[in-house]
Predict the 3D structure of the following.
Amino acid sequence: MNKTELRKKYKALRTALSTEAIEEFSLEIANNLLKLDVWEGDFYHLFLSIAEQKEVDTEFILHILQGKDKNVVIPRTDIEHNNLINYLLTETTKIKKNRWNIPEPVDGIEIPSEKIDVVFVPLLAFDKNGHRIGYGKGYYDKFLSTCKPDIIKIGLSFFEAEEAFEDVYTSDIPLDYCITPKQVYRF
Protein backbone atom coordinates (compact mmCIF):
# COMPACT_ATOMS: atom_id res chain seq x y z
CA MET A 1 0.00 0.00 0.00
CA ASN A 2 1.11 3.57 -0.59
CA LYS A 3 1.08 6.35 2.02
CA THR A 4 -2.35 7.65 1.03
CA GLU A 5 -3.93 4.21 1.40
CA LEU A 6 -2.12 3.58 4.70
CA ARG A 7 -3.24 6.95 6.11
CA LYS A 8 -6.84 6.03 5.31
CA LYS A 9 -6.45 2.54 6.81
CA TYR A 10 -4.90 3.71 10.09
CA LYS A 11 -7.26 6.66 10.53
CA ALA A 12 -10.13 4.15 10.28
CA LEU A 13 -8.46 1.79 12.75
CA ARG A 14 -7.96 4.62 15.25
CA THR A 15 -11.52 5.85 14.77
CA ALA A 16 -12.75 2.40 15.80
CA LEU A 17 -10.89 2.54 19.14
CA SER A 18 -12.93 3.19 22.27
CA THR A 19 -11.93 5.80 24.84
CA GLU A 20 -11.12 2.95 27.24
CA ALA A 21 -8.88 1.23 24.69
CA ILE A 22 -7.01 4.46 23.99
CA GLU A 23 -6.37 4.98 27.69
CA GLU A 24 -5.27 1.36 28.23
CA PHE A 25 -3.01 1.28 25.16
CA SER A 26 -1.51 4.69 25.99
CA LEU A 27 -0.62 3.47 29.49
CA GLU A 28 0.95 0.30 28.03
CA ILE A 29 2.98 2.43 25.62
CA ALA A 30 4.22 4.61 28.51
CA ASN A 31 5.16 1.50 30.51
CA ASN A 32 7.05 0.05 27.51
CA LEU A 33 8.85 3.35 27.12
CA LEU A 34 10.38 2.84 30.56
CA LYS A 35 12.30 -0.15 29.12
CA LEU A 36 14.40 2.18 26.93
CA ASP A 37 17.72 3.65 27.97
CA VAL A 38 16.89 7.20 26.85
CA TRP A 39 16.81 9.07 30.15
CA GLU A 40 20.21 10.80 30.15
CA GLY A 41 19.03 13.83 28.17
CA ASP A 42 17.79 17.17 29.46
CA PHE A 43 15.26 18.32 26.87
CA TYR A 44 12.41 16.03 25.73
CA HIS A 45 10.05 17.12 22.94
CA LEU A 46 6.53 15.78 23.52
CA PHE A 47 3.52 16.38 21.30
CA LEU A 48 0.23 17.05 23.04
CA SER A 49 -2.39 14.61 21.81
CA ILE A 50 -5.26 15.52 19.52
CA ALA A 51 -8.14 13.78 21.27
CA GLU A 52 -10.41 14.21 18.24
CA GLN A 53 -7.89 12.24 16.13
CA LYS A 54 -7.71 9.51 18.79
CA GLU A 55 -3.94 9.88 19.09
CA VAL A 56 -1.84 8.17 21.76
CA ASP A 57 -2.54 10.01 25.01
CA THR A 58 0.84 11.48 25.94
CA GLU A 59 -0.29 12.52 29.44
CA PHE A 60 1.26 9.33 30.89
CA ILE A 61 4.60 10.11 29.23
CA LEU A 62 4.40 13.68 30.49
CA HIS A 63 4.10 12.35 34.06
CA ILE A 64 7.14 10.11 33.52
CA LEU A 65 9.19 13.03 32.22
CA GLN A 66 8.14 15.28 35.08
CA GLY A 67 8.89 12.49 37.58
CA LYS A 68 12.38 12.21 36.10
CA ASP A 69 12.76 16.02 36.39
CA LYS A 70 13.24 16.50 32.63
CA ASN A 71 12.66 19.69 30.67
CA VAL A 72 9.56 19.08 28.57
CA VAL A 73 9.36 20.92 25.26
CA ILE A 74 6.05 21.18 23.42
CA PRO A 75 5.49 22.32 19.83
CA ARG A 76 3.39 25.05 18.27
CA THR A 77 2.61 24.83 14.56
CA ASP A 78 4.02 27.64 12.43
CA ILE A 79 1.62 27.34 9.51
CA GLU A 80 3.21 30.19 7.53
CA HIS A 81 6.65 28.49 7.43
CA ASN A 82 5.41 24.87 7.64
CA ASN A 83 7.49 24.31 10.76
CA LEU A 84 7.28 23.69 14.50
CA ILE A 85 8.29 26.23 17.15
CA ASN A 86 9.20 24.58 20.44
CA TYR A 87 8.48 25.96 23.90
CA LEU A 88 9.46 24.88 27.38
CA LEU A 89 6.45 23.57 29.28
CA THR A 90 6.19 25.36 32.63
CA GLU A 91 3.53 25.75 35.30
CA THR A 92 2.45 29.01 33.66
CA THR A 93 2.30 27.78 30.06
CA LYS A 94 -1.07 28.57 28.52
CA ILE A 95 -2.36 25.88 26.13
CA LYS A 96 -4.91 26.59 23.40
CA LYS A 97 -6.20 24.38 20.57
CA ASN A 98 -5.40 25.54 17.04
CA ARG A 99 -7.68 25.18 14.01
CA TRP A 100 -6.82 21.44 13.75
CA ASN A 101 -7.60 20.90 17.47
CA ILE A 102 -3.91 20.51 18.30
CA PRO A 103 -3.26 21.69 21.86
CA GLU A 104 -0.39 24.18 21.63
CA PRO A 105 1.42 26.69 23.83
CA VAL A 106 0.29 30.26 23.28
CA ASP A 107 3.79 31.58 24.00
CA GLY A 108 6.65 31.03 26.40
CA ILE A 109 10.34 30.27 26.46
CA GLU A 110 11.40 29.15 22.99
CA ILE A 111 13.83 26.22 22.91
CA PRO A 112 16.07 25.82 19.84
CA SER A 113 15.75 22.43 18.15
CA GLU A 114 19.50 21.83 18.57
CA LYS A 115 19.04 21.64 22.37
CA ILE A 116 16.48 18.82 22.23
CA ASP A 117 17.78 15.34 23.12
CA VAL A 118 14.72 13.13 22.54
CA VAL A 119 11.64 13.63 20.36
CA PHE A 120 8.41 11.69 20.76
CA VAL A 121 6.96 11.62 17.25
CA PRO A 122 3.25 11.33 16.41
CA LEU A 123 2.33 9.00 13.57
CA LEU A 124 -0.44 7.08 11.91
CA ALA A 125 1.65 4.07 10.84
CA PHE A 126 5.26 2.88 10.70
CA ASP A 127 7.20 0.09 9.05
CA LYS A 128 9.90 -2.34 10.16
CA ASN A 129 12.57 0.00 8.74
CA GLY A 130 11.62 2.85 11.05
CA HIS A 131 9.80 4.91 8.45
CA ARG A 132 6.66 6.65 9.62
CA ILE A 133 3.54 8.06 8.08
CA GLY A 134 2.08 11.17 9.65
CA TYR A 135 -0.73 13.40 8.44
CA GLY A 136 1.21 14.34 5.32
CA LYS A 137 2.16 17.96 5.97
CA GLY A 138 5.83 17.22 6.71
CA TYR A 139 6.05 19.23 9.93
CA TYR A 140 7.99 16.61 11.86
CA ASP A 141 10.39 15.71 9.04
CA LYS A 142 11.23 19.39 8.61
CA PHE A 143 11.62 19.86 12.38
CA LEU A 144 13.78 16.73 12.78
CA SER A 145 16.06 17.91 9.97
CA THR A 146 16.97 20.94 12.13
CA CYS A 147 17.82 18.86 15.22
CA LYS A 148 21.28 17.63 16.18
CA PRO A 149 22.36 14.45 14.34
CA ASP A 150 22.27 12.21 17.43
CA ILE A 151 18.75 13.16 18.51
CA ILE A 152 16.71 10.15 19.59
CA LYS A 153 13.44 9.81 17.67
CA ILE A 154 10.71 7.70 19.27
CA GLY A 155 7.41 7.01 17.52
CA LEU A 156 4.26 6.12 19.45
CA SER A 157 1.70 3.80 17.87
CA PHE A 158 -1.36 1.83 18.91
CA PHE A 159 -0.66 -0.63 16.08
CA GLU A 160 2.21 -2.90 15.07
CA ALA A 161 4.60 -2.25 12.17
CA GLU A 162 3.82 -2.68 8.51
CA GLU A 163 6.42 -4.73 6.63
CA ALA A 164 7.69 -1.83 4.46
CA PHE A 165 6.31 1.30 2.80
CA GLU A 166 6.29 1.64 -0.98
CA ASP A 167 6.87 5.37 -1.26
CA VAL A 168 9.59 6.54 1.11
CA TYR A 169 11.06 9.95 0.27
CA THR A 170 14.62 11.15 0.80
CA SER A 171 13.25 13.87 3.10
CA ASP A 172 11.61 11.24 5.37
CA ILE A 173 13.60 10.91 8.59
CA PRO A 174 13.40 7.40 10.10
CA LEU A 175 12.73 6.69 13.75
CA ASP A 176 15.21 5.16 16.19
CA TYR A 177 12.43 3.42 18.13
CA CYS A 178 8.69 2.93 17.98
CA ILE A 179 6.69 1.96 21.05
CA THR A 180 3.41 0.07 20.81
CA PRO A 181 1.27 -1.45 23.57
CA LYS A 182 2.82 -4.87 22.79
CA GLN A 183 6.50 -4.14 22.11
CA VAL A 184 9.44 -1.86 21.54
CA TYR A 185 10.80 -1.67 17.99
CA ARG A 186 14.49 -0.70 17.54
CA PHE A 187 15.74 0.44 14.14
Summary: The radius of gyration is 15 Å. Residues 19-33 form the longest helix (15 residues). The chain has one domain: 3-186.
